[in-house]
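> forwarded from #structure-qc
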């Protein structure tokens, strides 16, 4: 068996945040199974006005998150988009505490995945963009998040914020309102020690390890550090496991790619 095959075998992909990597419908079912814990607290969209809920029209439910980076563009994870064959089925919701009702909805004009996205191994360049058919109207509940620049950097143990509508530990939360949590930035070397070393690249950010984590349904959402978005929720071994980090696709390394499409 090749090293790549051995690495893939050692990863419990069923526990990862890969909501769309195998089958869109199956993975959406997984995302709606409230069996994990991410810690954190209930929050409001006013505190996270850049947060976007992504749904597929025919299934009718939220399956990934995203961030509003201009009134007409949303940044998310590539693995949230690769299995969506009909762009017209995508729905983007902004300005609501809840993922399946309220706020404003926009349809998608085009979706773009990073050309270097590696879908299975090592899940690198996990970036996707969506352009809306009409721009969102900005206000107290809908706002743009500033992206980290190529010269911005993170400190080890720096506090960062994540938010989303993903899986929690409360089976009663059928409509699961928005939650947020504080996670700490970790060392890539520590992540490599916990995972298979060659699947953690320099295009990734590690954060968590303290029981507060993103989970299924949070993929594509932002990690906010010092008021700027430094990453996109990509994957992880499990949710809320002490000493295991969630892996985020680093925003700073692909700022030129985003600028070429979006102009920011």
């Amino acid at each position: 068996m090749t090293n790549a095959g051995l690495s893939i075998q050692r990863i419990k992909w069923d526990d990862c945040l890969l909501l769309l990597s195998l089958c869109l419908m199956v993975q959406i079912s997984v995302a709606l199974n409230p069996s994990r814990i991410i810690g954190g607290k209930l929050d409001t969209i006013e505190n996270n006005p850049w947060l976007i809920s992504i749904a597929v029209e025919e299934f009718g439910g939220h399956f990934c998150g995203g961030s509003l980076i201009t009134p007409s563009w949303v940044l998310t994870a590539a693995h949230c988009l690769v299995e969506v064959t009909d762009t017209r089925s995508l729905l983007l919701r902004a300005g609501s505490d809840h993922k399946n009702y309220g706020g404003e909805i926009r349809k998608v004009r085009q979706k773009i995945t990073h050309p270097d996205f590696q879908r299975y191994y090592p899940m690198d360049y996990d970036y996707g963009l969506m352009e809306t058919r009409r721009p969102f109207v900005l206000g107290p509940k809908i706002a743009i998040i500033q992206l980290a620049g190529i010269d911005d950097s993170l400190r080890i143990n720096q506090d960062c914020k994540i938010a989303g509508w993903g899986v929690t530990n409360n089976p009663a939360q059928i409509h699961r309102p928005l939650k947020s949590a504080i996670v700490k930035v970790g060392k890539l070397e520590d992540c490599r020690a916990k995972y298979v070393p060659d699947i953690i690249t320099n295009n990734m950010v590690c954060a968590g390890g303290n029981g507060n984590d993103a989970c299924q349904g949070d993929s594509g959402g932002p990690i906010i550090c010092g008021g700027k978005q430094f990453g996109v929720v990509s994957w992880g071994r499990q949710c809320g496991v002490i000493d295991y980090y969630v892996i985020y696709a680093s925003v700073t390394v692909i700022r030129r790619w985003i600028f070429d499409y979006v102009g920011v």
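QC bot note: Helices lie at 3-10, 24-31, 188-194, 255-262. The chain has a mean pLDDT of 80.
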